[in-house]
Specification:
The protein is α/β, with parallel strands linked by helices. 37% of the residues lie in helices and 28% in strands. The strands form two sheets. Strands 6-7-8-3-9-10 form a six-stranded mixed β-sheet, sandwiched between helices. Helix 3 runs parallel beside helix 6. Adenosine-5'-triphosphate binds next to strand 2 and helix 1. Pfam families: ABC_tran. This is Amino acid/amide ABC transporter ATP-binding protein 2, HAAT family. Keywords: Amino-acid transport, ATP-binding, Nucleotide-binding, Transport.
C-alpha cells in the first residue's frame, strides 16, 4: 500500500545568531495517519526542528539556511502560523502555553479563530475535545493558570484540535508530568490518531514512552539524524536500548 507523505523535511540546516549551526542537515518525513517520534537528548535539536517546520525561529534569531520543508509538496517553512493552520498544520509548543487568565473553555475556543464556519460547528468541535479530555469538561470554568500541569498540556492539545488540524507538531508532551499522566496524554494522542485520523510529529526526550506509542522514530544527536526506523525495530535495537532506554 502506498502511504501518502504529508510533511517532508529535506536536509535542513538551522543557524542561530548567524553563527551557531544547530541543525546540520536534518531530513525526515511524516506519513498521513502516523505518529512519528523525533527523539534525542536535551539540546539535540528537536525543538529547533519543529520550529523550523512551523517558521517560529525568527523571534529566536534563528534561520533555516539550507534545505526545504514541504507539506503535501508545497514549501511551508516561510508561512505565518495562521497560513500554516489553514494548510492543516499546527504546533503545540513545549511548556504548554495557555492563556493563564482565561478559563479552560475560553482557551479552547481561541483555537477556533482561523476557521470561518459557524457557531454550531464550534460547539460540536468543543464537544469533540471534551469527549477526548473529559477532565477539561469538568474544569471548563476554571482559570487555566490554576489548573495542573497535565491539564494545561491537555488544554494546549485541545486548543490545537479546535483548528481541525491534519497534522499536529507536538513538542515534549511529557515534560514535567508524572508518569501516570504522561501515559494518559499519550493514550489520548493515540486515540486522536486512530479515531480522528490526526497525524503527529512528536518531539520527546522520553524515548521509552514515545517508542511505545509512535509508529516510526528518528533519533537526533547534535543536530543530525543518527538513526531512524519503525518504532518496534528501534525498541529492539541494542544501541537504542543502551543509550536511550537505559537497558544494557
Ligand atoms: P530540549 O529538550 O532541551 O528542548 P532540543 O532537542 O529540543 O532540547 P533545541 O532546543 O532544539 O534542542 O536546542 C538545540 C541546540 O540549539 C542547543 O544546543 C541549544 O543550546 C541551541 N539553541 C536553542 N535555541 C537557541 C537560540 N535561540 N540561540 C542560540 N542557540 C540556541
Amino acid at each position: 500500500v502506498q502511504v501518502e507523505t504529508l510533511l517532508e523535511v529535506n536536509n535542513i540546516e538551522v543557524i542561530y545568531n548567524h553563527v551557531i549551526l544547530v541543525l546540520k542537515g536534518v531530513s525526515l518525513s511524516v506519513p498521513k495517519g502516523g505518529i512519528t517520534a523525533l527523539l534525542g537528548g536535551n539540546g539535540a535539536g528537536k525543538t529547533t526542528t519543529l520550529k523550523a517546520i512551523s517558521n517560529l525561529l525568527h523571534s529566536e534569531r534563528g534561520e533555516v539556511t539550507k534545505g526545504s520543508v514541504k507539506y503535501r509538496g508545497e514549501t511551508i517553512h516561510e508561512l505565518d502560523p495562521a497560513a500554516l493552520v489553514k494548510k492543516g498544520v499546527i504546533q503545540v509548543m513545549e511548556g504548554r502555553h495557555c492563556f493563564e487568565h482565561l478559563t479552560v473553555e475560553e482557551n479552547l475556543l481561541t483555537g477556533y479563530y482561523t476557521r470561518s464556519s459557524g457557531k454550531a460547528d464550534m460547539m460540536r468541535d468543543l464537544e469533540m475535545v471534551y469527549n477526548y479530555f473529559p477532565r477539561l469538561k469538568e474544569r471548563r470554568k476554571s482559570q487555566a493558570g490554576y489548573t495542573s500541569g497535565g491539564e494545561q498540556q491537555m488544554v494546549a492539545i485541545g486548543r490545537a484540535l479546535m483548528s481541525k488540524p491534519e497534522t499536529i507538531l507536538l513538542d515534549e508532551p511529557s515534560m514535567g508530568l508524572a508518569p501516570q499522566l504522561v501515559e494518559e496524554i499519550f493514550e489520548i494522542v493515540r486515540d486522536l490518531n486512530e479515531k480522528e485520523g490526526v497525524s503527529f510529529l512528536l518531539a520527546e526526550q522520553n524515548t521509552n514512552v514515545a517508542l511505545r506509542f509512535a509508529h516510526y522514530g528518528y533519533i537526533l544527536e547534535s543536530g543530525r539524524v543518527v538513526m531512524d526506523g519503525p518504532a518496534a525495530d528501534l525498541r529492539e535495537n541494542p544501541d537504542v536500548k543502551e543509550f536511550y532506554l537505559g537497558m544494557s
